[in-house]
Amino acid sequence: MGDSFSGSDKAAILLLSLGEQNAAEVLRLLGPKEVQSVGMAMASMEKVNKEEATSILNGFVEEVESQTNLGVGSEEYIKTVLLDALGAGKAEGVIDRILMGHNSKGLEALKWMDSKAVAEIIRLEHPQIIAIVLSYLDSDHAADVLSQLPIRTRPDVVMRIASLDGIQPSALLELDEIMEKQFSSNTNVKSSSVGGTKVAADILNFLDTSTESEVMDSIKETDSDLGQTIEERMFVFENLSTLDDRSVQSLLREVSSDSLLLALKGSDESLKELFFKNMSKRAAEMLRDDLEAKGPVRLSEVETAQKEILVVARRLADSGDISLGGGSSDEFV
After folding, report:
1. Residues 6+ apart with CB under 8 A from 87
2. Gap between the Cα atoms of 212 and 208, Å rounded
3. Under DSSP, is residue 231 helix (H, G, I), strand (E, B) or coil?
4. Residues 6 or more apart from 93 whose CB is under 8 A from it?
5. What's the DSSP call for residue 256?
6. What is the pLDDT of residues 281-313, one digit of tens each?
7. pLDDT digits (tens, 9 = 90+) for 79-91
8. Who is most buried in 166, 217, 253, 278, counting CB within 10 A?
9. Are the beta carbons of 270 and 240 closer than 8 angstroms?
């Protein structure tokens, strides 16, 4: 019982059972992405019967009792409970903020801010500072901020992100103090390595196609090897062909038929067949007919639809519902 619920769903049921004040206290310990994920689960929660809710709550209580009775250290206990409640993807950031490092305010506050506000704060900073800040943000948030920066700045910043190979905690603290002079918050931050080609690729994945192309073209002109490396690590629509059947079915439940129709209009036959075989026979036949009947469409419309579906795919990957794999050994999540 309760196995059909995701980690976010279980956390939502737990919080809804705690009452407003207690739930608020728990949410204060979470980061922006976790709050959004659990908040969305809470908002969409419906038709949870008493037996299912009781099973999930009993599972949480059993976990607490087993860890406490065994005398496990507090850090291990916290990690286990958070992993069980939120899933590995979302719990990692929460664990970092609770258990790792010092009390750091400035950089963490950026995660809660509108992208335009972040861009306004950092736009006059040195490109290296901007690169570190964007590396610290979630990729979709960083992409929004990057799109707000001057066009001439974007390629330089992305190249610096791709070339980053970590940052010393002391330097991170200094940067954090610079940011703190402009605003304040009350959260913790983990001092760790940031940046790299994977981070640069993740950020570019969230840009609109025209902006992404402009940035990539400029990077390739300056450093073709770096541009190629970044490009190889980007997750594009055709990479969805690596999904297993269960993941495709989960994705299909979350995307609109209009977006799928446009996205597949520009795809090869093997990817189309992957989607067809994971639909009902009737739905697949209707989609085939629609694809054949639909006349020429603008490439920009196809690319926009594909980007929309990729955003959904990444969200499902973040929640642990599907697994995105690319051509390399790294996982794109």
Report:
1. 6, 7, 8, 319, 320
2. 6
3. helix
4. 31, 33, 34
5. -
6. 898 899 988 888 888 888 888 888 888 888 888
7. 666 666 666 655 5
8. 278
9. no
